[in-house]
Amino acid sequence: QVQLVESGGGLVQPGGSLRLSCAASGSILSINAMGWYRQAPGKQRELVAIIASGGTTNYLDPVKGRFTISRDNAKNTAYLQMNSLKPEDTAVYYCNANLREAGKLSHDYWGQGTQVTVSS
User: Fold this and answer.
1) Are 68 and 60 in contact (CB under 8 A)?
2) Distance CA 96, CA 61 (A)
3) What is the 3-state secondary structure (H, E, C) of 79-107?
4) Are strands 10-12 and 114-118 parallel, antiparallel or unpaired?
5) CA–CA gap between residue 100 and residue 8 (Å, rounded)
6) By CB distance 3.0 to 4.6 Å, which of 86, 95, 99, 119 could disulfide with 111?
7) Shortest CA distance to 76 belongs to which of 107, 53, 104?
8) What pLDDT, on the 0 to 100 scale, is given for residue 1?
């Protein structure tokens, strides 16, 4: 059974940094895109950053220049380095991976979410 386990959230002051990690485990044959989404209270979930298997990245406009997504294919792990954090970045951050399991077609999987709170 495939699992995505996130870590690295927490409370940070405005201007601070956090690094989120998302490790995929299970009978994984290949991972296509991996992405980070976030959902603030009362708002819809939005895509923050995404990275393709070849390394191409794309970002939500408000985080461009502050967040960096990366991945380690050998470890089936994606990272989100978040710098110059702002209170409006406060949300639950979710990892998503489109991957292929043994004997199955490609499918989207989600992590359990990790809280990021930016506050003084």
Assistant:
1) no
2) 19
3) EEEECCCCHHHCEEEEEEEEEEECCCCCE
4) parallel
5) 26
6) 95
7) 53
8) 86
Place of tokens 């997504």: 69
Q: What are the tokens at 34?
A: 């991996």
**Cα atoms found within 13 Å of the Cα of residue 11, Cβ hemisphere only:** 2
Residue whose tokens read 């939005």: 46
Q: How do residues 34-92 score in pLDDT, each as one tens digit? A: 999 999 999 999 999 999 999 999 999 999 999 999 999 999 999 999 999 999 999 99
24 CB-near residues (< 8 Å, 6+ apart): 2, 3, 4, 31, 34, 76, 77, 97, 99, 109
Rounded-to-integer distance, Cα 79 and Cα 85, Å: 16
Which residue carries 């989100």 as its tokens? 80
